[in-house]
Design a protein that fits this description.
Elements (H helix, E strand, L loop, with lengths): L5 H13 L4 E4 L2 E16 L9 E13 L27 H6 L6 E2 L3 E14 L2 E6 L2 H10 L6 E5 L6 E6 L3
Antiparallel strand pairs: 1-7, 2-3, 2-4, 2-5, 5-6, 7-8
Length: 170
């Protein structure tokens, strides 16, 4: 009975192996963290019971952190994660919120959203590759960058992201 599952298990393992992570060593790299504030308002016919309200975004500000250095335009920071933040954008006025309201809808209160998008750019031969990454990789680059320590990068599924960065021991 159990033998009939064997082909599907082998297929799954083969697929997993073919799409699994790969590693590369990078000597030239840059990590960025785009920090942003965005005002948003939820709209719905009934904000308390509607599971998927419509969300409108209003003003937004952002600043690009590079390798942990203070970026131009940063006014807040570094925070407890070593990130610098822009000024808070102006809150939408009552008139602006009401202008975007459709008939029969009610508008929620403006909410200030914080977001960070991490990216790692590294050299592969003569090419530059930029991939999304996470906070841990960003911090490894911040620590390694001043001495330009080579990093071993673990890439995600189909090499579409950088999941891990570790200093290469000499």
């Amino acid at each position: 009975m159990q033998m009939r599952f064997l082909p599907s298990i082998i297929t799954a393992l083969t697929t997993l192996t073919l799409t699994s992570c790969s590693t590369t060593t990078a000597e030239q790299y840059e990590a960025t963290a785009l920090t942003s504030y965005t005002w948003q308002v939820k709209y719905a016919n009934d904000l308390t019971s509607q599971p998927q309200p419509r969300i409108e975004t209003f003003t937004n500000t952002s600043v690009l952190n590079r390798n942990g250095l203070k970026p131009a335009g940063a006014v807040v920071g570094p925070d407890d994660k070593g990130l610098w933040w822009p000024t808070v954008p102006p809150r939408p006025s009552v008139d602006e919120v009401e202008q975007r309201k459709k008939s029969q809808e009610e508008a929620g209160k403006p909410e200030l959203m914080k977001d960070v998008q991490y990216k790692l750019t590294y050299g592969v031969g003569n090419l530059q590759k930029a991939l999304p990454t996470n906070y841990d990789v960003y911090r490894q680059v911040v620590k390694a960058y001043p001495q330009r320590i080579p990093l071993e990068l673990t890439l995600g599924v189909n090499d579409n992201s950088v999941e891990k960065a570790e200093p290469v021991s000499k």
